What we know:
Largest sheet: 4 strands, mixed
Mean pLDDT: 81
Order of helices and strands: EHEEEHHHHHHHEEEEEEE
Distance between the termini: 117 Å
Structural class: alpha+beta
Shape: rod-shaped
Helix content: 25-40%
Radius of gyration: 49 Å
Number of helices: 8
Strand order of the largest sheet: 1-2-4-3
Strand content: 15-25%
Low-confidence stretches: 97-103
Number of domains: 2
Number of strands: 11
Amino acid sequence: MFACxxxxxxxxSFDSSxxxxxxxxxxxxxxxxxxxxxxxxxxxxxxxxxxRVSPDFKKLIYLNExxxxxxxxxxxxxxxxxIFIIAHEIGHHLSTNNVDFVESRLESELIADEFxxxxxxxLGGSIKDILVVFxxxxxxxxxxxxxxxxxxxxxxRGWNKAEEQKKQELEKxxxxxxxxxxxxxxxxxxxxxxxxxxxxxxxxxxxxTGDYCFKNNTTYPLKVSMYFSHSTDGxxxxxxxxxxxxCFYDLKADTYGYEAIYHSLTLEPHPMFSSSGQIKVEACQxxxxxxxx
Length: 293
C-alpha cells in the first residue's frame, strides 16, 4: 500500500492498464528483470496502490481508478509521480516474498520508497519529483506508513545511490592522468618508430667511389691494367694467376679502359694473349669483369 488508507481485505479489480504495465516494464528494465508483474485497476481509496500475490502466485499491483485514468490520459513518458508509485509497489514485491506478512511494516515502506527513488533517478527523475509525489501523503504517518519526511529521505537515499553509481561509472570510464600521459608517450614513441630515420651517407657516397674486380678464367698468368679513358691518370695494375680473382677498391666513379695481357717473369716462349675493354665504376657498387680464354 502506497499511502495511509483503510486496509483492504477484498479487492474488486478490473482490466489491466496497458500504459501502467508499460511503466512497470520500463522500471524492471532498469534492474534487468523480466516483466512478470501485472498492473490492474481496483476499487480502492484515492492515492492508494497495493501490492498483492494472487492465489496462483502472480505478482499483482493494484492502482485506484483515478491514478489509472491519469496514466491513460497522460501523453508524457516522464510521468514521474506514477513511475514512483508503481516502483514503490514493485519494491514491496522484491523486498519480501509475502508482502502481507512482514516483520516491520514501517520498515518495508521505507525500503520500497528507497527503491522507487533509485528507479526514478535511473529514468531521469529529480529530487523535486520525489517532493511532488509525497506532497499529498500524511505528514505524521499512520500505523502502516512512516511520517512524510522519513519517506522523502528514503526516496532521496535511493535517488542519491543511483546518482553515485552514475558518477562512479563515469569515473571508471574516464582515463586518469597517468593513463593519459602514458597514452601520449606511447603515441610519441609510435610516431618516432614510424618516422623516417635519416640514413647517414656511406663513406663511398661521400667519396664517390666504387670497386671493380677481375676474374681470370684462363690458365695463363695475366697482367691487368686500368686507366681513365679520358685522362692520363693511372694506370692501376694487378697480376692474376689462372683462375684467380682480385679487385681494385675505392676507385673514383668514372669510365675506365682496361687491358689484360699474358704476364711472365721468364724469357720462355709464351702464347700471345690480350683482352681489353671499357668499364664504368659507380659509387658504392662492386662489379666484376670475367676474362675469358
